[in-house]
Amino acid sequence: MTELILTAVRLPAGDGPDGPLNLHLRDGIVAGVSTGPLAGAAGIEVLDCDGRFVIPGLWDEHVHLNQWAMHANRIDLSGAASALGAAAAVERHLLAAPGSDVTAVGVGFRDALWPDAPTLGLLDGATGDRPTALISHDLHCVWVNNAAARRHSLAVDGSGLLREEPAFLLTRELGLLPDTVLDEWAQQAARAAAAKGIVGVVDFEMTWNRDPWLRRFGAGFDTLRVEAGVYPQDLERAAGLGMRTGVELPGGGGLLRTGPLKVLIDGSLNTRTAYCVDPYPFGGHGLLTVNDADLLALLVRARETGFVPAVHAIGDAANRVALDAFERAGIGGRIEHAQFVRADDFARFGRLGVVASVQPCHALDDRDAADSNWPGRTDRAFPLRRLLDAGATLAFGSDAPVARLDPWAAMSAATTRSAFDGREPWHPAEAITRRQALAASTRGRGTVRVGDPADLVLLDADPLAVPDPDFAAMPVAGTLVAGRFTYDGGMPG
Q1: DSSP symbols for 294-321
Q2: What gap in Å lies between CA 197 and CA 336, rounded to an integer?
Q3: What distance in Å separates the CA atoms of residue 205 and residue 257, rounded to the nearest whole number?
Q4: What is the pLDDT along the chain (493 residues), one digit of tens a residue?
Q5: Number of helices and strands (H, E) in the chain?
């Protein structure tokens, strides 16, 4: 039996007694709450938390952890304001590090509002014979040069762009790094997440995800809880191994479980492939990448095999297709993103038991792209308040590396609809309360209760009371998973 008592902790305003409390943690569970001097604590470790506030541990419900781990070690193109600027940034990087013939990889470009278009010739002129592949911030598009096309046997046109499945295939190939390298980068990313109060992630890396995580946990990884998603091509393999959503995987030290079945049925806003009812200004409705019949069959099979479906749907037409399939299959689940929803579809989320797994930072990152591509209709883009008011359950994530893995930035975006950059909040009617944002970031827990897992975050200030900018950059004093510190930001010895 392992026991720890956290003394002199406080709950956020309105969550319980105003004074200091003692939290009794036993075998990974919040076993009790007491007040006043401790009695009968001989032989039990006691930690004085000096009046810090305690909340449940935070979850990121949608990450691509390998991609996020690699992101910091690739060419950053997030600041490129044009195709010419992106090509120039790559050229500067290659000139500073000449001599390698490994494919150079850039990340984070956003071409939806660029004044010029990516072309094969432009990237060739900047990179010469060095194979180069640039991955867009949304992961749905890759811009390559001729050298990369030859090396990776790619068929490209004059744009040099790969979209959707061809882009995903190349992205997976570019991620085939030595296990020792990628595992160390993943550990670094996990430690950074723990320093933000993250105790668990749902990992939707586009690969067979079980074995890499078993390898990492077998080597001592214990920083986060991980739910490893499964994709349709691996569903029967997973089912044959007895995997089911939410079921613990042997060898994961109690921290590794099978995640949902991830099904992508449309593209993205930046790549202009999100499937929409109304046409884009340039024409076309985007792409429906899984038809109605195939999606229904997948959801029925998910129900039969014990998997919770997580359907990627961004455009309003895609969200309608997804909700129709959930209704016909008679199964609940999740819609990942739900960025653009028809007014008469909001109530269906709650009625059908479909969780809206959303990424609030996207509303701020993509506001200009939304205004440009969904003109006059963005009052129902990146909806939060309307989903909640219609009875939906929200689950927050980052979609890292699409946005940074930072739950406080996500909750701030949800509650202010502002990046504090001098611009007016974007559709502030869609803002929700901090208490609602905390619930969406803690799997509905919201506050600490006896019987909950001892996955906790210690804060120097009350998250329900600090000013908005402080909430967005909330410093974390400590993070615990199953009653064990995974991050200690200066707690007393």
Answers
A1: HHHHHHHHHHHHT--EEEEE-SHHHHHH
A2: 22
A3: 14
A4: 689 999 999 999 988 888 899 999 999 999 999 998 887 667 789 999 999 999 999 999 999 999 999 998 999 999 999 999 999 999 999 998 876 789 999 999 999 889 999 999 999 999 999 999 999 999 999 999 999 999 999 999 999 999 999 999 999 999 999 999 999 999 999 999 999 999 999 999 999 999 999 999 999 999 999 999 999 999 999 999 999 999 999 999 999 999 999 999 999 999 999 999 999 999 999 999 999 999 999 999 999 999 999 999 999 999 999 999 999 999 999 999 999 999 999 999 999 999 999 999 999 999 999 999 999 999 999 999 999 999 999 999 999 999 999 999 999 999 999 999 999 999 999 999 999 999 999 999 999 999 999 999 999 999 999 999 999 999 999 999 999 999 998 776 5
A5: 17, 21
Q: Answer yes or no: are the C-beta atoms of 97 and 391 closer than 8 Å.
A: no
How far apart CA 200 and CA 197 sit, in angstroms, is 9
Q: Helix 434-441 to helix 407-416 angle, to the nearest 10 degrees?
A: 140
Cα 342 to Cα 91, 205, 289, 386, distances in angstroms: 43, 29, 20, 11
CA distance to 227, 307, 309, 416, 493, per residue, from 304 (Å): 20, 8, 11, 41, 51
Strands (E), 372-446: 394-396
Peptide bond into 375 cis (omega under 30): no
Indicate the SS3 state at residue 115: coil
Contact partners, residue 87, CB within 8 Å, separation at least 6: 122, 123, 125, 126, 127
Query: Six-digit token pair at 406?
Result: 């930072």
pTM over 0.70: yes
Task: Produce one character per residue of 245-274: b if its CB has 16 or more CB atoms within 10 Å, e if not.
Answer: beeebeebeebbbbbbbbbbbbbbbbbbbb
Hey, what are 250's tokens?
């042997």
Specify the long-range contacts of residues 216-219, CB closer than 8 Å, at least 24 apart. Answer: 216/183, 216/186, 216/187, 217/251, 217/252, 217/253, 217/255, 217/256, 218/251, 219/183
CB atoms within 10 A of CB 396: 28
- CB count in 10 Å sphere of residue 176: 8
